[in-house]
Each structure stands twice: as structure tokens, then as C-alpha cells.
Specification:
Length: about 375
Amino acid sequence: MSRKAKSALKKVMAVLLAAMMLFMVTACSGGGDTQTTGEKKKIGMIWYGNTDAMGGTFYAWANHAAEVLNVELVWSLGALDTATELTDCENLINAGCDGIYFIPMDTAANLQLGNACQQAGVYWATSNRDIIDDEVLAAVEANPYFVTRIYDNSYDVCKNMVAELAEQGITKVCMISGDPTDAMMVDRNNGFIDGCAENNIEILGTFQNPSSGDATTVVDGVNNFMTLYPEMEAILAVSGTNGVGEAIMSALNGSGKEPGSIKVAAFDTFDGNQEAFDQGWLSVSCGGYTTECLISFLALVNRVQGNVIQDGVFEMTLSPLLITSSEEMQIFSQYVDNPDVQLYSDELIQSLVGPDVTVEDYQAVLDDWSIDFVKEAVGLT
């Protein structure tokens, strides 16, 4: 082959090589981030369980949203303390999760799981618990992988529950208080206390809700209320879960008093809520926290998919549904904590993940949470 021909061949080979390199770069980049294009994200879900009404409902809602958004979920069920949650978190990180969602079982969980996520470069989000320790709050807010925290507006809800009793003419109550070391219970305690002060309602006596879930302690406590304070007109309970609501009703039904002669305002729903309303014992209750779980989860998915809507963690609140009648209790029982009912449309779920979503969009969904919203969502209005 002549020198001229060899030179021409080299030029052709150089052009072909350059073209091949350009094709390979374009194919790999897809015109965007090589780490995210076409990649199905994986979210670790640390959840207390899926056999009760709320637990099963969020489990169903999150799985459905994951299908809509093409996200893989890895569930760790059964964690009821920080040590277990931390172990679950580490296992989920090792399993390749891009984000971790959990409800902090205590204040320390925010620090410990948050540090694990930061060290691994994994985003995380929480719901259902406020952080009242300023040092802990400052530490976790400095964590660059903390996406959002959403918590119940328990304080205002408790004040509203007291206001409902005041409208019924209640002036003297007894109170089953909550653990003063639990941020959520502190808000509920203060909401009841301040609500009574604002409505000129006297708190005659109190006892602390047993964390052990000992129903006998609650029954004995309510019986003592009735013995020591015969003028008592209502009972405030910071929680109706873990057998407390059932124990209160057991004591009242066994007292020989006319049903409805003592009113109850109980935070959270419990087995027998409907009957308690129908009998006249229960005047006001509240519940429905699954929306804040869903919004926290969606905000985490949004960040994991590369959409930064705010620098640093953003804080949001949800007011649980206030239930003031037997009719509203029926609606709640049938449609709210029901794994078979998806209250949020696929279109709404999709609209809450993307580069144009704002914190205000998330908070608007939380603010819209009401019995009226539920009625509309299921076609009752």
C-alpha cells in the first residue's frame, strides 16, 4: 500500500473512532445525570407494623404510591424502640436503599439513625413526632441528608377538644396525662391544660397513662376519679390506644352511672369508639395520621430522585381529624383507617413528585385533611 493510501486509511479510522466515542458518551449520559437516568430508586421503610388499622393503611398507601412512582420499597416491620430502628436502618442502608423513612420512637432515634444515614450518604425523613430538645433539633437540622419532618399539631387539637366540651357546658374534668419525657405527650398535656384554662374548666385530678398498657391501672384510675370527685363531668385522655380507651369505657359501663352522664374526650381512636359515641360516653375523639406519613414518604422520594425544593430540612404539621359525632365516627371507621381505601388519587401522588413541587404544595395537602375531604374523596358529597 502506498504512503498516500495509508495516510487516507488512518484518517478514516480516526473519524470512525471519534464517532464511536461520541456515540458511547451519548448513550451513557442519556443527556442527563448518569447516576439517576433509568434507575429505579429504593426506599427503606422502618414501620412499627401493618396489622392494626393505621399501620395497615399506610402500608397499603405507600405500596400503592411506590407502584405509581416506579419506586422499590424495602420494609422492616416491628421496630418499637430506637435500638431496633437503628439496626433496621443499617441493614436497609447495606441493602442499597437510597432513602430511609421512619417514625422516631424517641428523640435519640433522630440522632442515631440520622448519623447512620449521613455517614452512608442516604437521605431520610420522619413523621408523627416533634423534636422539643433544642440541641437535638439543631444537630439534626445540620444533617445535610435530612429531608423533612412532619409532626402532629397535637397541642391545638387538644385545645379544640376541650373547647368542644366547653360548648356542652362542661366545667369540671379529670385528666389522664401522658409521659412528660415524650415530646408528643407533652404537647397533648399542655393542650388539655391550656384549653381548660382558656375555657374556665377546672381539672380536679390526674393520673399518668401507663406506658405498659396495663388496662387494670386505667380502670382503677377512672374508678378513683368517680369516687374522689363525684362532681366530675368529663375525662380528658391523652391517648385512647394500647387498651386505654377500652379500659375507660369498661370502668364507666361498670360504674352503674347513666350512659353519657360523664363525657370523654380521648386523643386517638380505639376499638369500641363507635359504640362509645352511640352510648353517649364519648363526646370527642381524633385520629387519622396516615396523610402525614404519606407526605413525608413522597417528599423523601422526591429528594432521592434528585429534586431539591429547599435547602435543608423542611418542617410541616398535620392536625388529626376531630371527630365529634357518631356519624363522623362511622365515616372515619369506614374510610380513613382502611387499607382497602386509597383516599389520594394517582394524579395527586404524581403531582407531588417532581422538580416544580414546593413545600407549600405538601403543606396544602396536609391542611386539606378533614372529614369533609374524606367525604369528597369517597363520593359522599
